[in-house]
Amino acid sequence: MDDAKETLVRYLQDGRDAVVWKLDGLSEYDVRRPLTPTGTNLLGLVKHLASVESAYFGATFGRPYPDPLPWQRADADHNEDMYATAEESREDIVAFYRRVWAHADATIAGVDLDTVGRVSWWPPERADVTLHTILVRLVAETHRHAGHADIVRESIDAQAGAQPDEFNLPDEGYDWLAHHERVERAALARRTVEP
């Protein structure tokens, strides 16, 4: 791989790993429960990212993902890929995501960055795209959802950080309670000056 492709693949994999790591050590309920008004949940983020990758690195480049995906049915709910059904296990969804990675990685390895594919669900005037464009889009999409996973995980048990071996926040001795109170005081002070 050339340097640009290798860099994009590394960042994509970092995001993939971060999202999956956010499931570690949590109960079945905690990986599934919705923690925002729109239902955002950890396992749903993994399932959604698998869905997105399967399409963008599959059909876009003439390599459709081989397994049928229930959320692609004509009668599927718009958010069917955003949560785990009661019948789906955490292991099933993570395994599915890893199979999609392998399929996506084979596409990425097999074509050049300037190879043109077609995103059939985009408007026709911008449906023709390069692998480079799709890699950038999926790096951004994956890291966006990794950020969501950070917040959801922190809401569950206050665990934070980019990776198990990369706690990208101040050291363990940092007084997070004092920081939280400082942020709250600043917000309250500003509220009192609003008209």
Explain what this protein looks like in three dimensions:
A two-stranded antiparallel sheet has the order 1-2. The protein has helices at 3-21, 28-32, 42-56, 90-110, 131-157, 176-191, and strands at residues 116-118, 128-130. It is globular and about 55 Å long. It is mainly alpha-helical. The mean pLDDT is 90.
User: Shape from CA axes?
Assistant: globular
Order of helices and strands: HHHHEEHH
Number of strands: 2
Q: Report the sheet with the most strands, covering strand number, pairing sense and barrel closure.
A: 2 strands, antiparallel
CATH class bucket: Mainly Alpha
Instruction: State which percent range the strand residues make up.
Output: under 5%
Low-pLDDT residue spans: none
Query: SS-based structural class?
Result: mainly alpha
How many helices in DSSP terms?
A: 6
Mean pLDDT: 90
Quick structural summary:
The protein is mainly alpha-helical. The chain contains six helices and two strands; from the N terminus they run ααααββαα. It has helices spanning about 5-20, 30, 40-55, 90-110, 130-155, 175-190, and strands spanning about 115-120, 130.
